[in-house]
Amino acid sequence: MKTNVPIELSDSQRDRFANWLDTKETKRLATRADVNEFLQGVIAGVLDQSESTKPNQPEPVRPPATASHHHPHKALIEKTIAERGMSAAQAKGYWRGWTMQPFKKG
Questions:
Q1: 27-68 pLDDT, tens per residue?
Q2: Where in the sequence is the domain holding 47, given as residue range(s)?
Q3: d(CA 26, CA 53)
Q4: Number of domains comprising the chain
């Protein structure tokens, strides 16, 4: 299904979103492709999460975070990316959908 969801962002919002995506201060503005990639990752993450919480299904084993920079679901995310044969761009969006970590200044 193709969707046509209108999202209006001001230049200020596009700047903040690009900074959040890049996890650093940048001068570039977020593009339609950035927004599209992010939203596809979010939707894929939500669908995968809802699949893993179906009744009569064991809770997926999640490895413990070994350091603050490791995502607690890293193994599960990388396994899903490999199983689906995602391109680098799709995998990047999928990670963003799972992590949902905003850019922090300082």
A1: 999 999 999 888 888 888 888 877 666 656 556 665 554 444
A2: 32-52+70-106
A3: 38
A4: 1
